[in-house]
Design brief:
By secondary structure, the chain is mainly beta. About 10% of the residues lie in helices and about 35% in strands. A hairpin with a 3-residue loop joins strand 3 and strand 4.
């Protein structure tokens, strides 16, 4: 790490799971009103960002200190369509963390459609368990030049040394 930069320290431990609600915007949909597959990646990023924010830090704080988290793997399984104006809960959880890599799992759960709770009995596009998509991301910790570097210890769940 560049010695001229001090590593940020969280105010509180980073949560290992969290959620946020997202309302699907018109611009995120195809001409049929279905959320475009490319819209899911930003929702996942929002979930990761909010998880970090629980510690009192932001990605910008990390980057100013020369700590960059880059996506090295992204997998999404689409189970049911998410449509314009739906409200989706993005559930994010840290699955594992190591010296350099951090893995998150996600569920995108339909919580509102047409202004009401979704009903799988009335709408075949509503999953019985509410989960419209599941995803996984893997992030690598790199320095400003893009070379792998050690993850700040406080980003690793259960690492008290960080």
């Amino acid at each position: 790490m560049d010695e001229s930069k001090s590593e940020p320290r969280p105010g509180v431990p980073v949560s290992v799971s969290g959620s946020l609600a997202v309302r699907v915007r018109y611009a995120e949909c195809d001409p049929m009103g279905v959320a475009h597959h490319a819209s899911y990646a930003p929702w996942l990023e929002m979930g990761r960002t909010e998880l970090l924010r629980t510690s009192g830090l932001s990605y910008a704080d990390l980057e100013r200190a020369g700590v960059f988290l880059v996506v090295t793997k992204l997998e999404i399984r689409y189970r049911r369509p998410i449509v314009y104006d739906d409200v989706v809960e993005v559930r994010t959880a840290v699955e594992s963390a190591g010296r350099v890599k951090l893995r998150h799992r996600y569920e995108l759960v339909l919580v509102e459609r047409n202004g009401a709770a979704p009903d799988a009995a009335k709408d075949p596009r509503v999953p019985i368990d509410g989960v419209c998509a599941v995803a996984l991301t893997e992030l690598a910790c790199v320095d400003a030049s893009g070379r792998p570097r050690s993850m700040p210890g406080w980003l690793i769940p259960g690492d008290e040394a960080g």
